[in-house]
Design brief:
single chain, 276 residues, TIM Barrel, eight-stranded parallel β-barrel
């Protein structure tokens, strides 16, 4: 397993300074929120994309991929009943895939937030079908560019709230580029299954992990024990990134990133020692 952190933890920092900090702390990679680079990824020229990728390469820091995909611009929605809005959203999603590829990323985490939720006055089945349609229109490009679109269930969603619902969407679409992201906080909020059961059920579909505590803060800040989580990941032979994503952050971001990594590494080392 490898460790990365989300750059939006470093609010207001340049992306190059984030790279420097994460490399110094000891991370293997970085996950980028596109809204921290520009209000629209369509405005990021190729020259700037090359600069960002080279800055990471120079430090031997992998750009894992993207998350918080559609915080900006306004007016995007994967499930909107208006086909013109859906068409614009699909077009923008394709631009995100191109950005991810240009930066050297392989993963795009698509959270089940308001850009992919049931709208007021819209039926659940209609929203579900329109989301499926939108994904089916972007996944061929994702496959062509070698990018996995990882659906992340979120408890605030009215459409994809649980891992079971995310897996249902993944199985119905049945495309190799649509995968599962597991946010520890969101999994802790599920009532039907615990985190270990969810990871086991996800199996080979689990392609990315967002590491945070059940309290929304960084790993190690609360009661969430990552040792059984790492054991469950070992059980499914997970070897990809565990990416630190505090949804709430108090204090200096570099300190939070450092404490998170130290905690996660200590938990993983303990699990690996028990397995030998």
């Amino acid at each position: 397993m490898k460790f990365s952190a989300c750059n939006d933890l470093y609010e207001g920092w340049t992306i190059e300074d984030v790279f420097e900090s994460l490399k110094e702390i000891g991370y293997d990679g970085v996950e980028i929120a596109p809204c921290t680079l520009a209000d629209s990824v369509e405005s990021i020229p190729l020259e700037r994309r090359v600069e960002i990728r080279r800055a990471a390469d120079k430090l031997d820091l992998e750009i894992v991929g993207l998350h918080q995909l559609m915080v900006k611009p306004d007016g995007l929605h994967l499930c909107h009943p208006d086909p013109n809005i859906r068409n614009r959203t699909v077009s923008y999603f394709r631009s995100l895939i191109e950005l991810c590829c240009d930066l050297g990323g392989r993963v795009m985490v698509c959270g089940a937030d308001d850009r992919g939720n049931v709208m007021t006055g819209q039926g659940y089945e209609d929203a579900w079908d329109t989301m499926k349609e939108s994904f089916c229109r972007v996944l061929p490009l994702a496959a062509q560019r070698g990018v996995a679109v990882c659906l992340e269930p979120q408890e605030k969603s009215k459409l994809v709230r649980t891992a079971d619902e995310a897996l249902k969407m993944i199985h119905e679409i049945n495309h190799p580029s649509l995968r599962l992201d597991c946010s520890i906080r969101s999994m802790c909020a599920e009532a039907e299954r615990n985190v270990i059961e969810i990871i086991a059920a996800g199996g080979e579909q689990v392609t990315h992990i967002h590491a945070n505590d059940a309290n929304g803060h960084e790993p190690g800040s609360g009661d969430t024990d990552f040792r059984p989580i790492f054991k469950a990941l070992k059980d499914i032979r997970y070897i990809e990134y565990v990416s630190v994503q505090p949804l709430k952050c108090d204090g200096d971001p570099a300190s939070v990133a450092s404490k998170s990594l130290n905690y996660l590494k200590a938990c993983l080392e303990e699990v690996e020692a028990d397995l030998t």
